[in-house]
Amino acid sequence: MKLFKFPVILILLFLTLPAFAQKLKADEIIAKHLDSIGTAEVRAAAKSRMIVGDVLVTFITQKNQTAQGRVVMASEATKMLIGLNLNGADYTQEKFTFDGKKARTGFAYLTQRSLLGNWVDSNNVMLEQGLLSGALSTAWTPLNMGEGKGKFGGGGSKKIDGKEVYVVDYATKGSDVDITLYFEKDTFRHVRTEYKRVSSAGIGRTPNESSGFSETRYKMIEDFSDFKDEKGMMMPHLYKILFSVSGQRGTTEVEWAFTMTAFTPNPKLDASTFDQ
Q: What CATH number is associated with residue 191?
């Protein structure tokens, strides 16, 4: 009998390991994340949403030039609008919309798109799949999974700014962007999304000319913080976008910092809200 006592104890210890010691799958992380937003009943009742706030744009690689203004976000089911009104001399506005069928990106000044506008316009999956602005929108991807959507994978963990987070990958057809979502380990709140894309170097007329070209790397980070209750929904009130592109002409970095000041649940939104 003594020969079997030690293995039995080990088995009992294994069976009683706490849940946090076991690796969570991506789908389990997403399910817990949805509960962190609000109960199933509250989430189901959130048909539309409007948010307004302030925005500060910092052109990091241009000697900290800035522009500031107001932001409005509106969403209804999978439809969404993000609009910025800015005081920049050549950066007066920004507009992203998805009407449930088509994604559109507006001009920042006259007939020119901004760096962010060009990126989103080239990667419409961010609007079509409800990724841009995270849980601030009713179009948020985990809330609307189904036919035509991508898939969650991974489920590991890492540290961001000294804090433990769960890491979930998101893959969808027709996109060559690497998309990674991060969820706070203690609360399962969505705190970051990272987008990465690499474009191959150009080809010159001769081998020597080609050797002078370099690949272009794009990276966009969305950060969410300062979570507060809004009518039963836990919403981030600070939202940042950091976009960088590096390649043949060096590196360019721009940051958009949003402070959300007013949330309106279930407003009546005209269909034209989501038209460009």
A: 2.50.20
Burial of 242 (0-12, 13-18, 19+ CB in 10 A): middle
Q: Structurally, how many domains does the chain consist of?
A: 1
pTM, entire model = 0.87
Strand order of the sheet with strand 190-199? 103-105, 93-98, 79-86, 65-76, 48-59, 250-265, 233-247, 216-230, 190-199, 178-184, 163-171, 151-160
Check if the beta carbon of residue 93 is closer than 8 Å to that of residue 72. no
**How far apart are alpha carbons 165 and 24 in whole angstroms?**
12
Average pLDDT, the chain: 89
Evaluate whether residue 167 is within a structural domain. yes
Asked if residue 9 is part of any domain, the answer here is no
**Rounded Cα gap, residues 9 and 227, in angstroms:** 43
- Position 17 in a domain: no
Specify the residue for token string 């976008």: 241
Give pLDDT tens digits for 40-58.
999 999 999 999 999 999 9
Query: What is the domain range of residue 140?
Result: 23-274
Q: Examine residue 245 and state whether it is found in any structural domain, yes or no.
A: yes
Q: 172, 149 in Cβ contact below 8 A?
A: yes
Residue 185, CA distances (Å) to 13, 50, 68, 112 in order: 24, 28, 33, 41
